[in-house]
Amino acid sequence: MKKDLLLLGAQWGDEGKGKVVDLLSSNYQIVIRYQGGSNAGHTVVVGGEKFILHLLPTGMLHHHTTGIVAQGMVLDLELLKGEIEHLEARGISVRERLLVSDRAHLVMPYHKLLDALLERKSKIGTTLRGIGPSYMFKYGRKGIRVCDLEDKNRLYKLIREDWEFVKDICEKIYCENHSIDIDKVYEETLNYYEFIKDCVIDVSRFLMQNADKGMLFEGAQGTMLDVDMGTYPYVTSSNASALGLPNGTGLSPKFFTDTFFLGVSKAYTTRVGEGPFPTELFNEEGENLRNRGKEYGSTTGRPRRCGWLDLVALKYAVDINSLDGLILTKLDVLDTFEEIKVCVGYEYEGRYMEHFPASLSVLEKVRPVYKTFKGWLKDTKGAKRPEDLPERAKDYINFIETYTGVPVVMLSTGPERDEYLWIKPFLQEVRV
């Protein structure tokens, strides 16, 4: 019997995970964010009221849940404090239901400075929130963890050493002079820590002790942005696929044996920032997708690049994550299209490919091979039952299932919490 649930993005992020996590977390007692940082932006609309969460688990919008910020995340304590205060000002209790890993690494002000310098050189399309440099310091064994804030002398020493390292990079590599008030950074870091100090625990131990409770693991970004399996180097700095689940939570892979894995995908494809995007549209159809889908980043406000659904990439995400099913969002964005295309293969130098290549050079040169569907030209927004869907919309969904080899279990039919429909109710198999 499936007991826990992993929800993650099956594309390049921005798939609508926040709304789905908010909806499904009503069935779970514990919700866990386990990777990424404030570069994530999960948007939920409840009763016409909009919430955008960057660090806190989206499932915390339900008053019965315990929210976990696990060790695989990198935390900007200033933003975390602000996010907590913002929700509490709107009548949502947070600190008495929030647990923060003592092993999570911190994003410091000098990480953001370094992020801007690196982006200027490499143009990856980062959010400039210091996420990449924080992970760099983590794996370079120069990071600062939440538990380090208990030793004030050690904290000051670490901040000073880190800043001297960043300062050398600024001056010797980029030939720029920058200054940071180390004493101010030190004092502010301690003040932010004091605000969340009572929430800090050994998260992996807590999760092992509460293994009998229903847990929902909330991924950030998307599989195609995974640092190992995504379109490297145009990726995020953490494992945004299921690969990040064990190391991000501190739990053995055996812990997830009975976990149900679901991927969230749009009915078309988008991505933000730089990097290859085989089905990207530069015409009126692309503009229509962007305008109808309101495709602007919740974290940066940047317009998203839009294109037809890439089933080669989606099948790749299904396979490497061993997904049990898909949740499809924004089907209604396609309601007005007379023709709808899906990519079923790539053409590369006269060869036909059905697999997603690792090589950036190859991926930049592939041409999508499309299958064309007639549009349904009927409104699917707010549909509540499968039988409410037009037959051509059902055909579109059935083709996605056949190609990927997994069922589409749910449709999100609008931004509100109650705008969804079950196609194959998997929750009957889940113990919560």
TrEMBL record:
Function per UniProt: Plays an important role in the de novo pathway of purine nucleotide biosynthesis. Catalyzes the first committed step in the biosynthesis of AMP from IMP.
Binding residues annotated for substrate, in chain numbering: S298, T299, T300, G301, R302, P303, R304
Positions contributing to IMP binding: D14, E15, G16, K17, N39, A40, G41, H42, T127, R141, Q221, T236, R302
Gene that encodes it: purA
GO biological process terms held by the UniProt record: 'de novo' AMP biosynthetic process; IMP metabolic process
Cofactor note: Binds 1 Mg(2+) ion per subunit.
Location in or out of the cell: Cytoplasm
UniProt signal peptide: none
Protein name per UniProt: Adenylosuccinate synthetase
GO MF entries: adenylosuccinate synthase activity; GTP binding; magnesium ion binding
Enzyme nomenclature, EC number: 6.3.4.4
Binding site for Mg(2+): D14, G41
SMART domains cross-referenced by the UniProt entry: Adenylsucc_synt (SM00788)
Residues annotated as catalytic: D14 (proton acceptor), H42 (proton donor), K138
Names of the cofactor(s): Mg(2+)
Record field: catalytic activity: IMP + L-aspartate + GTP = N(6)-(1,2-dicarboxyethyl)-AMP + GDP + phosphate + 2 H(+)
InterPro entries (alphabetical): Adenylosuccin_syn_GTP-bd, Adenylosuccin_syn_Lys_AS, Adenylosuccinate_synth_dom1, Adenylosuccinate_synth_dom2, Adenylosuccinate_synth_dom3, Adenylosuccinate_synthetase, P-loop_NTPase
Pathway: Purine metabolism; AMP biosynthesis via de novo pathway; AMP from IMP: step 1/2
Entry annotated with the keyword DNA-binding: no
Positions bound to GTP: 13-19, 41-43, 304, 330-332, 412-414
